[in-house]
Amino acid sequence: MDYFVDFYNRLDVITAESAYRRVEGGSFPDECMTVDISNPKTTEDYFNSIDTSTTILITFYDRYIANSKMRHVLHQYVNTRHRRNYDDLKLVLVADVIRAYHGMNHSTQLKTPEGIALLLLLIKLFRQDFYVTYETLKNIPEDIINLDGLIPYISECSDSIEIPADESIISTLLIEAHPRADLTYRICLYNLCEAVSKVDGVISQSEKEFIMTLLHLDDEDLSNDIEIDSSLDFLK
């Protein structure tokens, strides 16, 4: 079974439902249902930090992941031959973030404070026609929240890839395609995980353990340790 095709079929349904609800000019009709996902824990500072972290991650994706070499490496794990774009790489990027959420024992429900970071990532990758601000958290269109329905499909795609669930898919691909970029990717992913972990003001044991793994601090090999203050030169 091609779980990736199932994902795209579901994405097409969500996109079609959104197009049906939109009116000329790109605005939403008054009767369109909206959802309030604001929360006392979702402070403006927290929102700004996850907004920035997701943007950094996508900037890295655009420059180092969305290319034919990475797609070729992914093809060793997924049959991408009949797809000519890089959407499979988008999908596994989100799968990596979901794996990180599981590693930190965080909810992937998009209406939760932690899930809002995942929602921002999904919107920036698959719904670029919509823009979220801190103020608009009180009125998120229902069809945007329906992106929540993609999570099970992404998880199935993630499980179908023969890379252990506690390892990063993108990192595995980068080590073969662009090994020097793997360090930067891990820092980008760390920045997002750190931002999400601060939502409750407490760093849990599961969060600490996952971050140590992400930064290669969980072994005795000091040569592969990643300094979190490493410069993200690709943003310049």
Count every beta strand, where a strand is a DSSP E run of 2 or more residues.
Answer: 2
Mean pLDDT: 85
Biggest beta-sheet profile: 2 strands, antiparallel
Unreliable segments of 5+ consecutive residues:
none
What form results from the Cα inertia axes? globular
Give the radius of gyration: 18 Å
Biggest sheet, spatial arrangement of strands = 1-2
Measured distance between first and last alpha carbons: 42 Å
Q: Which series of helices and strands comes N to C?
A: HEHHHHEHHHHH
Please state roughly what percent of the residues sit in beta strands, choosing from under 5%, 5-15%, 15-25%, 25-35%, 35-45% or over 45%.
Answer: under 5%
Q: Oligomeric status of the shown chains?
A: single chain
Structural class label: mainly alpha
Tell me roughly what share of residues is in helical segments: 55-70%
The total of helices stands at: 10
